[in-house]
Amino acid sequence: MVTQKNVTEALYKSIINIRNKETKMDKETHINRYGNEFTFTEDPDGNILWEGNFEYIRTSLNENKDIIMIDPGGGPYLSKGMPSSLVHPEIEDKEIVKFQEIKTGFKIILK
Q1: From CA 70, how far away is CA 28, in angstroms rounded?
Q2: Are the beta carbons of 84 and 48 closer than 8 angstroms?
Q3: For a tag site, which of 2, 49, 79, 95 has the least CB within 10 Å?
């Protein structure tokens, strides 16, 4: 049975730290259970760019039509209130507020 705890533990175990030589920003790479690769890169505003294959995806919206949950097929499941360190260990003491759709995926807005 897939639970939030299992997903979180799998996310921690599968993140690989690599360096993006062009921007000098840390990039975290996650390979989900279907072999899809997702990258998480801190942007200059202190938010996180989440890029990868979002062909199959579930989302949830709040009353303001903000995206507050994203679950691509095979994971990783992310939602409002989760700590930023789940997807980028070097960005601590922040939490996910919402998501904004961008051309290459989503921008994770943090507070």
Answers
A1: 18
A2: yes
A3: 2
Q: What is the pLDDT of residue 62?
A: 97
Q: Quick one: pLDDT at residue 14?
A: 52
Reference 10, options 31, 28, 39, 27; nearest CA is 31
> Which of 2-6, 22-26, 92-96, 100-104 shows the lowest per-residue confidence on average (mean pLDDT)?
22-26
Among the listed residues 16, 37, 36, the one whose alpha carbon sits nearest the alpha carbon of residue 28: 16
Give the pTM.
Answer: 0.77
Of 41, 43, 47, 50, residue with least CA distance to 78 = 50
Indicate the DSSP class of residue 83: B
How far is the C-alpha of 67 from the C-alpha of 80, rounded, in Å? 9
Mean pLDDT in residue range 7-23: 48
